[in-house]
Amino acid sequence: MTTGKINVSVENIFPLIKKFLYSDHEIFLRELVSNATDATLKLKHLTSIGEAKVEYGNPIIEVKIDKEGKKLHIIDQGLGMTAEEVEKYINQIAFSGAEEFLEKYKDSAKDSGVIGHFGLGFYSAFMVASKVEIITKSYKDEPAAHWSCDGSPEFTLEPHDKTDRGTEIILHIAEDSLEFLEEYRIRELLTKYNKFMPVPIKFGTKKEALPKPEDAPEDYKTEYVDVDNIINNPTPAWTKQPSDLKEDDYKDFYRELYPMQFEEPLFNIHLNVDYPFNLTGILYFPKLDANLQVQKDKIQLYQNQVFVTDNVEGIVPEFLVMLRGVIDSPDIPLNVSRSYLQADGNVKKISNYITRKVADKLKSLFNENRQDFESKWNDIKIVLEYGMLSEPKFYEKAGDFVLYPSVDGKYYTLAELKEAISANQTDKNGKLVVLYASNKDAQHGYIEIAKEKGYEVLLLDSPIVSHLIQKLESDNENLTFVRVDSDHIDKLIQKEDTQISKLSEEETTKLKTVLEEIVPKTNYSVQLEPMDSTAAPFIITQPEFMRRMKEMSQTGGGMFGMGNFPEMYNLVVNTNSDLATTILTTEDKSVQESLVKQALDLAKISQGLLKGEELTAFVKRSFELIK
C-alpha cells in the first residue's frame, strides 16, 4: 500500500474547494458524471482508432445510493486508470487528464466529445463527502487500484481485486450534505445536468410490461419485469443533422425540454457550425405578447451535452434571450465550475453567428411562406424590433422580412410600404409621411378621417415602437412617421392647396381669446385652423415629438427627464365649422362656456381622456341639453 501527500501548493486545499472553488455544491454530481462520460468516450475513441485492443460494447454509467452506508456510487465502464495514472491525475491536482488526452490525440479526437477538466472536477466531490474512494481498473492489462482520501492532504493507494474495466467513485456523504442520499434529490440533479449526456445513465430500475403472448388466455395478467431506469436521452435532437429531423421531431424535443409548456412553438432554428468554432443547438420562437418583461432564462447552455447554465446573456444576442431552446458548444470558455462565462473573443463570434443564422432563417421563412409568416408576426415582432434596435448586423438584414401591418390587416416590408404610399402620402416638401396608430379602438375616429382621404394607416403597437421609428427616420432620408392623432389630417400631410378660413383675422383672434379663458391651460394649447367644414369642430391631438420623446424616456432613451413631464395636448378648433361661428356669436357667457365645455368633452372622449368626475359632469350636462 502507498500513502502520501497530494501535490498541492496550499497545505489544505479542501476547505478552500468547499468554500470558494465551486459556487454551487450540487454540481459535484455533474462533474463526476462528466468525468465518467469522458472516460467512456475516450475509450470509444481509442477503440475506434485501434489503440485500445478491447471490446467497447454498450457501456453505461450507473449512479447508486447506499442510504444505510451513507454512500453514493458513480460507476462507469470507461477506460479506467492504472495506479500510476491515479497518482498522476488525482494527486497532481492542477493536471487535467482530459487536456493531456486532447493534446495527444488532437487531430483524431476533434469529434470524440471529451468534456474536460478531470483533475479539478473530481475534487468537487469533497464539497459533499467526508471521504472519497476510487476503485479503478484500466483497459490496459494492469492490476486495479484503490485510492482513498478523507479530505486531508493524506491519501492511500493500494491494489484492488476489481476485474471489470472502468471506475467506481464512492462518496461517503458528510453529515451536512445528507440530502444527496435522497433518491428525489439525485434524480432532480441528474435530470437537470445530465438529461442529454451522450452515454446512457442508469439510476435504479423501473417496471416494464412484457408483450402479451399471442396465445394468452382471456384472464391473462400483464407481467412486468425490472429493467434499467435510463434517465437521459443520449442523442437529443440538436446532435442530429437537420436533414434527419422532421417537424414533429422538433416539436417532440421542445416538449422534452419544457414538459410544462403546453403551447406549441411558432418555428425553430437549427444551429450547426464547425468552423471557425464548434456550435450546435436549436432555438425556438415561442408565442410572445407585447410585454418585454418575459422570462429570460429559457435557453439552456450545454458543453458537450452537459448542462452548464440557463443564463446565456453574452453568448446569445440580447434580443434573442426571450427565445427558448438549447445551445451546445465546447468552445465557450467557462471557469472551473462551468457556471460563469469568461470574457473571450469566441463568445462575440458565436453571438454574431447566432444573429446571422436567425436573420437568414427568418428571411427564408418569409420567402417560403409569406402568408404563414404574416400570421405569426404579432407573436414575434417584439423580438425582431428589439433586434433591429440592439444589433446592427441584424438591422442590416431585417429589411428583407420585418413587416409593418396596416390597421386593415395588410402587411408591408418597408420598401413595399414606401412604394404603396408614395403617390398619395408625399407632402409638399417631398417628405414621405407614414401615418400610424398605436391603438385601433382608441384612435378609431382619427383613423377613419385618414382613410377618407385615401391614406394608409399602419398599426404599430409595440412598447418600443417610438425607438424603432426614430431609428428608421434617421436611416431613411425624407421619411417621417406621425401618429394619426398627433395633428389634424391636413397638417399631418400638408399639400399645396390650403384651406381658407371663413373667419377674419380679427374674428379668429377673438375666438381664441374666448376659448383660452375656458380651456385649462395646464394641459391644452389652443390652435385655430381652417379645415373642411365637414371635419370635426374640436379635435384633440398630442404633438408627435413631445409624445414620442416621453414614450422613449419611459422605456429607456429619449430626452432625459421627459418621462416625468405632464401630458400636453393641442386643442385644434376648426374655424370653418358651424360650432366655431356659434361660439363666437353667442352673447351669453354661460351658454358660450357650456358649448365650449361640451365640445371639449366630446373631443376628449375621442381620445379616451374623459374620466372620473369630468365624465360624470359631462353625462349630467348632456342629459340636461336633451331635456
TrEMBL record:
<keyword id="KW-0143">Chaperone</keyword>
<feature type="binding site">
    <location>
        <begin position="96"/>
        <end position="97"/>
    </location>
    <ligand>
        <name>ATP</name>
    </ligand>
</feature>
<dbReference type="InterPro" id="IPR020568">
    <property type="entry name" value="Ribosomal_Su5_D2-typ_SF"/>
</dbReference>
<dbReference type="InterPro" id="IPR001404">
    <property type="entry name" value="Hsp90_fam"/>
</dbReference>
<dbReference type="GO" id="GO:0051082">
    <property type="term" value="F:unfolded protein binding"/>
</dbReference>
<dbReference type="Pfam" id="PF13589">
    <property type="entry name" value="HATPase_c_3"/>
</dbReference>
<keyword id="KW-0346">Stress response</keyword>
<keyword id="KW-0067">ATP-binding</keyword>
<dbReference type="InterPro" id="IPR037196">
    <property type="entry name" value="HSP90_C"/>
</dbReference>
<comment type="similarity">
    <text>Belongs to the heat shock protein 90 family.</text>
</comment>
<feature type="binding site">
    <location>
        <position position="35"/>
    </location>
    <ligand>
        <name>ATP</name>
    </ligand>
</feature>
<feature type="binding site">
    <location>
        <position position="76"/>
    </location>
    <ligand>
        <name>ATP</name>
    </ligand>
</feature>
<keyword id="KW-0963">Cytoplasm</keyword>
<dbReference type="InterPro" id="IPR019805">
    <property type="entry name" value="Heat_shock_protein_90_CS"/>
</dbReference>
<dbReference type="GO" id="GO:0140662">
    <property type="term" value="F:ATP-dependent protein folding chaperone"/>
</dbReference>
<dbReference type="GO" id="GO:0016887">
    <property type="term" value="F:ATP hydrolysis activity"/>
</dbReference>
<dbReference type="InterPro" id="IPR020575">
    <property type="entry name" value="Hsp90_N"/>
</dbReference>
<protein>
    <recommendedName>
        <fullName>Chaperone protein HtpG</fullName>
    </recommendedName>
</protein>
<dbReference type="InterPro" id="IPR036890">
    <property type="entry name" value="HATPase_C_sf"/>
</dbReference>
<dbReference type="Pfam" id="PF00183">
    <property type="entry name" value="HSP90"/>
</dbReference>
<feature type="binding site">
    <location>
        <position position="81"/>
    </location>
    <ligand>
        <name>ATP</name>
    </ligand>
</feature>
<dbReference type="GO" id="GO:0005524">
    <property type="term" value="F:ATP binding"/>
</dbReference>
<keyword id="KW-0547">Nucleotide-binding</keyword>
<feature type="binding site">
    <location>
        <position position="338"/>
    </location>
    <ligand>
        <name>ATP</name>
    </ligand>
</feature>
<feature type="binding site">
    <location>
        <position position="31"/>
    </location>
    <ligand>
        <name>ATP</name>
    </ligand>
</feature>
<feature type="binding site">
    <location>
        <position position="167"/>
    </location>
    <ligand>
        <name>ATP</name>
    </ligand>
</feature>
